[in-house]
Amino acid sequence: MNTFPAQRPQTGTATPIATFPPGFRWGAATAAYQIEGAVHEHSRGASIWDTFSHTPGSIADGTTADVACDHYHRYRDDVRLMSDLGLAAYRFSVAWPRVQPDGRGPANQAGLDFYRRLIDELLDHGIEPWLTLYHWDLPQALEDAGGWPERDTAARFADYALLVHQAVGDRVRHWTTLNEPWCSAFLGYGSGEHAPGRRDGRSAVRAAHHLMLGHGLAADALWTAAQTGTQVGVTLNLYAVSPANGHPGAADAARRIDGLANRIFLDPVLRGEYPADVVEDLTQLTRLDHIADGDLDTISTPLSFLGVNYYSRYVVTADEGADDAPAADGKPSAWPGSESVRFVGNGGPVTGMGWDIDPAGLTETLLRLHRDYPALPLYVTENGSSFPDVVSPEGDIDDPERVAYFFDHIEACHRAIAAGVPLRGYFAWSLMDNFEWAHGFAKRFGLVHVDYDDQRRRPKTSARWYAGVIRRNGLRLPKKIMAE
């Protein structure tokens, strides 16, 4: 197995370093369905992603994550990679159907045993486990009962959270309820691009609320059972949103997308209310009678931290004379009630996903949270980029574009901290290449390259570079691309 080189002795004139605060937590992140494989082992139940990925036409390259990175069997080797990298923390998710095959009832102890072993291995290597309870793999049995548009799913999620805490709460301090509920609701139930592949804007709006209700119920359950030092948070995918021009239609488009991408989650969690303009927009689409008295009090259960997943900026406008009816081509939208909005990009470089590279948007997002919402420690819980990787004849993977992306976004974090933002850590996405949801295995985000034929792991240049950042607790300036 390739490992990371020891730090070289410093010689000559020292290079200035953008240093991070003492105790700043450097980590990397993954998700259960994307890496674990072993989907039929030890009584694991089916998830919506198992069903979706086996549905013809759902995944771009026709693959499934039945094996993925085989992390279920190779986790010890993967933890050694993390240790070689110097990670202080590892953010992973628990597969709900591995713990509760049907999403309800007693825990499957064989499934919990895997996470017990993984957590013990992390702790043995001095790596802090950051556990995410839900990264999109709803048990299929719960989807068959109505899924996230149904209120009961939120209650089932709280039961599951308590089962996991009872198993590993003595060894895990940092708990994240949900990862990116926007994707679960609006890609899963609105556009149908993600599992379960439903295409109904009204269902997506209901799902968004019940996901956040599930978050609040789970957070309350975790607090009730909390061990000393327990910290509870949620992770949201947030975006800087800009109008493409000075036209009033573009400004309204930016307001709408900011509302549906950011404020529809931030405001209930951190303020205990939905934004009035978002409510007005959505009531033109559907009655909001699924919101019950007391829900917002539950959703706004106090938190220890907020996780921020940041990848890009949205630049938007609206067609002249367009209304908010569904797009003319009839394509389902992830933006219910705002189908007329057009995403135009910023005209600069993009990643292999086609996403604008905009590190200034990360600083902007962090500053906004610090300025506009109640004070709360922040963590960048995902940030990274997909680019095509080429394995050299010698087995090396040089990825300077990914290094540049990481450099610029970590520098953006440093600027935010300098401006007073209480940013406490940064988790690179992703530790290793993996099953990239509807794209299958065609997109690679990893610090570590995975050969899906033989499961060999090869650290990329970006992994060696990131190991240096961790050792120094900072960035060398000016930008230094190559590994040290």
Give the helices and strands, then pairings:
Layout: E1 17-19, E2 25-29, H1 32-35, H2 48-53, H3 71-85, E3 89-93, H4 96-99, H5 109-124, E4 128-134, H6 140-144, H7 152-168, E5 174-179, H8 181-191, H9 201-224, E6 231-237, E7 240-243, H10 248-271, H11 276-283, H12 295-299, E8 305-309, E9 313-318, E10 341-343, H13 359-372, E11 378-382, H14 400-418, E12 423-429, E13 448-450, E14 457-459, H15 461-472, E15 474-476
Parallel strand pairs: 2-3, 2-12, 3-4, 4-5, 5-6, 6-8, 7-9, 8-11, 11-12
Antiparallel strand pairs: 1-15, 9-10, 13-14
Organism: Phytoactinopolyspora alkaliphila
Enzyme class: hydrolase
GO cellular component, one term: cytosol
Structural overview:
This protein has one domain: TIM Barrel, CATH 3.20.20. 53% of the residues are buried. The strands form 4 sheets. The chain has an 8-stranded parallel barrel with strand order 2-3-4-5-6-8-11-12, surrounded by 5 helices. Mean pLDDT is 94; it is low at 1-13 and 322-329. The chain has helices at residues 32-35, 48-53, 71-85, 96-99, 109-124, 140-144, 152-168, 181-191, 201-224, 248-271, 276-283, 295-299, 359-372, 400-418, 461-472, and strands spanning 17-19, 25-29, 89-93, 128-134, 174-179, 231-237, 240-243, 305-309, 313-318, 341-343, 378-382, 423-429, 448-450, 457-459, 474-476. Helix 3 runs parallel beside helix 5 (109-124). With 484 residues, it is of the alpha/beta class. The longest helix is centred in the middle third of the chain and has 24 residues, at 201-224. 38% of the residues lie in helices and 15% in strands. Belongs to the glycosyl hydrolase 1 family. It catalyses: Hydrolysis of terminal, non-reducing beta-D-glucosyl residues with release of beta-D-glucose. Keywords: Carbohydrate metabolism, Cellulose degradation, Glycosidase, Hydrolase, Polysaccharide degradation.
